[in-house]
Protein 1
Amino acid sequence: RNLQPTRGLVKLKLVPVAGGETIDITGLLNTQKSTARRLQFTLPTGGPNVDTTYKIVIENGYGPAVIAHETITILGAGSDSFGIGQWVPWAGKFDFAANTYNAVTKQNNQFDAVLPQAVSTGAADNSAAINANIQYLASKGGAVLTFPAGDYWIQNPIQMASNVILKGPGKVRITGNVPGGAERFAFYFPSGTSRSGLVDILYDNGARFDDYQGYGNMLGQGCTDILLKSCVFDQHESDWLQLYEGRRIALINNRLNQGINRNSRPYARGPLRLDGSSYVIAHGNYFDYCVDGVNAIGTNHAFWSANTFFWQASLGNREDPVNHVLIHGHSNFWCVFGKNRFTSDEAFEATKDMKILKITGKSSNDGEKIIAEFTGEVLQRVRACPVLSATPYTVSHTAMYMPADDHYWVTIIAGKGLGQERKVKSRTSLGVTLEEPWDVVPDATSNIVIGVQGVCDYLIEDNDFDLGKRGPTIYLTPSRRGAIIGNRMTNAGSIDNTPFLQSTGLPKQWLFCHQWDMEVEDNIITAETDAHNGNFIGIHAVQSRQDRSVGALVLGYVCRNNKVTARMPNVVA
């Protein structure tokens, strides 16, 4: 924050992590496109070095140089065969894309080589032929399997492989009734699959029946460099696309149409699941759905831009829904910026309908457009307690409930050393060892939180929110270094930050979710026609049945230059 690039005082250097020559790129900073929270610069000709990782060292002219939390790694540009380089920095990794095979004629575009089986339009099941061709291409080092315009039928899963892309140069429609069971996904990416995906493919899922299992669309766990571009998934009453625990997932200009009627599918899920994935680029997509939303729980380095999230609230009876739109829980380094639109249909806007739902209790009306929230067992992993003793690298504390997890942090929330946080290197039931030393060592006056980290280093900027009960909501989760900047909300509720304190029932142990270093600036909230969405901006600590706090629930919260226009009765959602 507070870079102030237009003043001409910013200095910028790249320092190799492994040692070597520092590169001064101050003169290559674009001061017009950089902002208080974002740097844009050009790399110099002839450097820095490809496949080298650098620290970013910044000065803004008002204080000493600081090192950015994140390093950057320089990749070779390669060939941008699919036209995604504007958004996806690893576009050059698909270096096999010039080698193509026609799925119908079996012919290669360059060599005298043919596929083992031909694919045909019409009613015949193409699953076996497509799978045989994918495995053949993978064994030859990779290629693009192209489909001429037409309708193709499948009744069994398509198993993807590394270095193979399915692509339609024209209108390609694949329709399927893939059977239920463990392998019920139309497109399956085995764990470890890399440099694979779909481009210009329309998949029409045949799920139109009263079966909670439905027909699956896509499953990929633990995959790398997966691309979906310009695809359409008509999911009807089927389950979500799942690309979770992956690395470098690019979703560019796709449309996911779910349109589930909740009455017929009580166990349905939202259109997309990305849980646990890192380096996610989602640009220009349209998500059309009825229940749940886009799940990105535990993701990191996720960037959302120019997407539309459309909730079809009028489909079906919305009893006991989970209607969040974009869900981030215990995620870090993520951005929702650049003309994303979060909206709903007119049925959800209707004031009369909202009153009925509130009176009958048939709908919880969650509807947060962006939410980060700990629930259930995860919330139990965030415990506050007193310090017994400490050294620069250790902290001893009262006995605590500590489930197994590899991502614990310690934060000093009261007393000596307030405001510091450190990652845990190792731990026992009575103490922890830190990866880095304290700047100020805590003592018996200090209280700490030890547990999994919540949402950190996020930016929600320049988005439009239309219609809905609630807007961006950071709730029941520890949060550090967040910014909600320059968004426009119309009949869309509030910007709500809710830190939380509650007793565990055990002596000197509390559930504690603090929110520190937050910026909420230049947002416009307007109740243009609907007074039932609770229009406000605020941070309010919830101390459930506690007579006092045990630490700083709120620290470094900045709220300025916002505009709120509410109407009577301004009912809080």
Note: The mean pLDDT is 83.
Protein 2
Amino acid sequence: MRHDDHTPGRGSAPVGSPAGGPPRDRAGDPLSVLLLKPDGYLLPGLRPHLDRLIERHGLRVVTRYTLTLDAADVEDVWPKLAAGPYPVAHQLTLHYMTGGTCEAIVVAGPDAVARCTAIRGEVRRDFGDTVFANRLHTPTEPDEIRPCVDKFLTSLPHGLPHVRHHDPGTARGAFGRLAALPSSAIRAATLDVWRQQRRSGWHSFRLETAPGAHSTYLLPGDSHSVDYGMSVIAEVLPGLTLHQIITAYIEMDVRGESRLHSGTAEETLHLADRITAAGLFARARATRPAAAATDRPA
């Protein structure tokens, strides 16, 4: 849903481009999109900072407007999430991206895609929150650039149909116990996560585990999909609920590690070995005295 009027940039009226080529404006410069996500839109100081970055990177604003995305809009931008193998990421993204106001900014300029990618990196470095909420999106893959520009330059401003591009995703997705969960259970768990985040913030996510002399910790650095990583945890720790598994991932991202299990030295080392054998990062070590005494540091 659009919130304001179409606002073209000066001297940069958008036009079409030959099929198969990069989308370009009337001056012949490539086009791209910066999509300020709900958490970025509300963050004090980020919008004027983003304007300065656009100017500093030599880009021109073709159009910009605020809007609220619906589920179909989200799936148009990230079609691989609707393809099936990423049910948890799909629902987390839907709750996140439909939960507030966004701002779409279509820009043009030399090397627009690379410059927008650099802007995204700067914003996430300076203002980023977690892997689940990272302020700003821009298309980077060749197959997604034109559809994303069409979506925010033509389809949404003018109420025209949008043709979603095909992106089944190449990363391994959910399997085993997590893949067998009904969609209603995944929707409920992910909605609870976002309600907790809005009520208490990201630092409120801590996986409660029984204290012990030795523990297995989940560590950041996993390059797989969120759904694959969570599926690994679901298989090696079948007693954890989906909400607990998501909590562990958030805690790992925010605090640098999440304690998954405590037990004997042999048990925790074996668990860490199983997790790392599946391609994730984990380690077993003696539990810190403060953590063993209080279950979690204050």
Note: The CA atoms of residues 190 and 263 lie 29 Å apart.
Protein 3
Amino acid sequence: MLKVGRFYINPQQQLLLDENKNEIALEAKVQEILFYLFDNRDRYVSLEELHENVWSGRIVSDSAVRRTISKLRKLFDDNGEEAEYIKSVVKKGYKFVCDVEEEEKEEESQRPKNKFRIKWKKVFYSFLYIAFITLFIFIANTTFFKIDTLVQEHVLAVTRNPQNGDYAYIGYSPGDTRYQLFYRPDETRNDEILAFSHDPLLSPIFIKNTIWVGWQSIDSCGLLKVDIKTKKSSKISLNCSTLVHMSIVNNGEFLITMRPKQDDTYQSYLFKIKNEKTFPISDAKMETPFIASLSSDENILAMSYPSLRGSTLRLLDLKNNLQIKNNDIPEKIIQLRWQDSVLKLATESSLYKLDNKTGALEKFDVRTNLSKKTKIIDFSIYAGKVQVLHEEDKDTTQHLNTYIERSGHLELFNTTFLDPHMLPVLNDSSVFIDHQPSGYILKNISDQKILATSNNLIQVLTSIEKNKSIVIFKNNKLEIINKEKGTLQYRLDAQGDVKQAIPVPNMDALWLITLSPAGWQTLLWNYKNNSLSALALHERIRFFINGKLFWVDSRDGIIKSKSKSGDIIYFSKPLHLSPESTWIVSDDSYLWFTEPRPYVTDIYKIKVGSEQPPSIELRIRGLLDINLNEKNQLTLLLNQQPQSLLSSSFRLFSL
């Protein structure tokens, strides 16, 4: 037994014990890294060496290795600056630096007895666990459902082969931030990994003996074609910067919705399998992202795009060049699929089918009463049967992560778990949002005074310090509310989705960055006399650095400003921003911004005026908001994602 600081290490058993010699449970990789560094404590160990010896050469990102080391440091309460246990040096690696003392023999001799007793206890509980699982499987196989477990933490999209019912699904592994394409023959219980990628994969589609999936990198996208029999794959690049959605049309074609490079609009294309070429659908083009699905006879196109009150479903008759119907739904539509000539769609809470005769939407459900309140992720259709991929029936939790920059990369510094009913407002710490079953309530922290209520989430855009006011956006209205008195001062019926509000220097006015079907527009709202005027087009972000005004052009994603003579000057390489991107500017002239990807969010950083392109700093799931605290540390508000279930057959897709 060896003493290291206030801990004990048993190298033979590879155990870490606390100061009272109680065994500390460690994750497998944390344990392996600890004892690899301990065994090689006479030198620095590089990231490459850890890749090779701890992960056995398996492909994982450097950030995954660093996160594992961060967990070990957190266990030791080791902040890294004055490292007591694990020291890191740039370009050298990591080293176990704590002094090692040998324990006295009489104390060491007592440990095997204790460990023997613990071992028998583990054997006993293991036996009970195996007996329980055996009984459960026996009962499950004699009732109306069965459970299949997969070594995968999250399933993000699922589809079934229309010919034989085989499954294909996309899984995401947070441990090494990989996306994996799984294939499961319907008649067996064996899952096969056909492909994996650190870039997001999305929308699996069966076409005969192949599976097609989309892929999305930082600034490009395309298709991955995988042969089920040979397991061989080929990558196809498309002329696009963002891939939004894919849906099957028939055995020879599928529909792709994407944003072409050098373009600020989104469009649907018919992809023909035979020659692997895309053909644009002229009527399916918008300024904002949308999802689309084409009927198998290629006559009816269904499109869905966000609206101020939820989503709009639009049906087009391509053959006769007619718009059939528009339906407004007070929820976000996440998936469209045709079943023969019937359109079926899903929002995050409900399933709908379109009545062909009346054009009305009818609700239906295939989930049990236990799962009807859970969030829908995707759904599939096979042999007339709908299966829903939805979150597990568990409450979500929110937490705040604070990151510090060390050795050129972000490290998790602190995590604070939050009351799920109390959402902090990162850009104004004097207020919070109380989430109740009846809706959302904006309150003042000091005296709990109610400032605003809404059935939908309230967006806090900015504060006006001279008026002690807060600017919010709710229910398609912009409101300025006095934080001390709780009184409404000014209100504006918004013309579009307000993404940003900026107090205008030396004026009782706000600049409003809005997005409507016509595109991005900057408005000037003089709230004192309630006048609204158009100021500029194509501004995605507007901000100040040292009193100088900058903006990001929505057409090319470049940071721009004006010289004293009025000439436009470029201050960056192109940024890849979507309508849902959020951003913050640091005191040292760095612009941090987010780019939502399928299932995750990438966080980038760029120095304004630098010739370097934006660098990706973090990839994370469940991001709600981003900010910088008073120490200029990155702070993220996160939503802990529940696990995923596939209804109808009750397949458990995560552990």
Note: The two ends are 35 Å apart (CA to CA).
Protein 4
Amino acid sequence: MTESARRSRSRSRSPWNADPLSWLATDWLPIACAVYAGVESLVMLLLLGQAGGRPLVQAAAAGLAVGAFLLIHITTRPHRGPLREPVAWLAVALVLGGLALSAAGYAGAVFRIELWFAPASVALLLIALTPFSTTLQLARYGAVSVAFTAFATLVLADRAPLGWPVPVTVFLVVLQIVLATVGCIVFVSVVTRLFETWNERPLGLDGESPDADHRERALAASGSGPALVDRVDADMSARLAAPMRLLHDVLDRGAVTERDSARARELAAALRTGLIAEAEDTWLARLVRGRPIEVDDPGRLAERLSLPQRTALRAMLDALLAQPDSGFVAGRVELKAADRGTVAVALRIISTLPEGRRVTFLAPYYVTLQAAVDDIRWRNGTTLEVDFEVPVTDAPPRAVVQRSPAPPPDRPRAT
């Protein structure tokens, strides 16, 4: 995948879409934001005396903001799927309605605009929406919130003495919302791209691998800087060792024989075959290279798996290989095209763990798969069998190496 395509796809994913299991606990984030917003409102209104002449109106405005956080909390509870955008817009409307109500309650009153609690609630709502929103969605929520807040501030500045020039007043109010929007967008972009990059790393790289030599090789294979340069140099030297010996022999003799020509053709064919095979490896084949896992994927269907599906499958394989307690012996992953336009995936795992301990060990990863795939079936026994189907929306992957088309057939000649 090119860098531009990777960035385009990362903009259409939320952290929850990238890895549902890691974000199952984020339904508590809106509760934390609600508590913070509620405490801040109480401090501003009661302790700092910013209730104005209509304290009940300000209390109602704070209640609307807390209601927006509770809405997100309820709709993002586990097993309820991702947060739908209409629900997110309803939460945004509630918190902006609270801001408008608060601004109306301050009309004609004297208060310190820098202690206004409502804009902070808007910024906190964007934070609560972050795990379930894409960068484009956050940009839309943030843009609408900034525009609405700026308009409400201009109206309020016309009706109440705020003690600051109007541009400075608008700047003070919208700054925290702008910072929250930018920060959340950067966070989502970085997290989703890191998940995609993590899926390409060799297995066992993030955990405690019992094979120290393999771990060192994996670190060098996925590293950067000197380690990456050394690896590339070593690979190129190994590939070109036989051709270089042939060239040295020819130069020493000063003549090319028929045997040299035949040997050169063999080396060129072998080198081309190896390069094509590596270029057309899928992310799954690269993932398990050098490990006791066989991949049967002649149609390169692994490339059609989405990021959450890749994350779920990789998490299970990573746990089996990186944890000594897994008792993993060998595995096989088979991918075939199904009749309904989906990809059927069959995972076979041989482990020395007893059946009960094996089920307990793999249960969290089964939950992850269940959240990302369809029709999952789990059969325990001497060999653990996990079968599931993956809904596919992308077009079939194109071959990395484009081969020359076959020559057209000879046209019949008129007699």
Note: The radius of gyration is 30 Å.
